[in-house]
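Re-run requested by the PI after the first attempt was lost when the workstation crashed. Everything re-entered from the original request form. Ligand of interest: fe (ii) ion.
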Amino acid sequence: MNTQARLEALIGTIVKDAQLHARWLNTFSFLEYVGFRKIVKSQKAEALNATILTHAVEEGRHALRLKKLAMQIGGPAFETYAADVLLCGEEAEDYFQSLDHQCEAQFSEYGEQECARLTYLYVTWLVERRALEVYGLYKSALAGTEIAQKLDGLLTEEIGHLRQVESELAISDPQHAARAPLVIGLEARLYETFLGALDTALTPQAAHP
Ligand SMILES: [Fe+2]
Ligand SMILES: [Fe+2]
């Protein structure tokens, strides 16, 4: 089964159960929050421009929007990112942190500022591509519902982030064509690990004798 079919099957299980569904939404809220935090922390103020600031603010807004949906479905217990109201929260954060570290390692020969700039661009590029795939499949699974409608604005902003970072990479990284398959491979392995964790979490454990 390819990763899209695996994710579709997992989403099918998740959206049938309100608790799981709220934990799923809260986990993506958490990832949006981690994205927001990463952007803010990774850029020195003297290098932070209006485009990057807009990106950070929009990721923060996505975190809040998904958090509100999680609370709408699951109630006030979903107000925080405590482990028991997330779905594979630790593994989700591992995906993001490992991607960041592995990309940073690719650019370690550059000076600090250029390394931070390339890491930001590549991590954003990879995460936005994946976010569009995951949110797109999730939205299709909820077609016609109020939640699907509420995802529209978020998806539009993610498409904007992807376009912006793609054009920036095309202009400012002459090695983009050579680097792209390498970093795509890194991200794909980390994403598969996360899907494996979701699989395990959602597979009913065999009853112990
Ligand atoms: Fe986002
Ligand atoms: Fe984004």
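Saved to the shared folder this time. The two ends are 32 Å apart (CA to CA).
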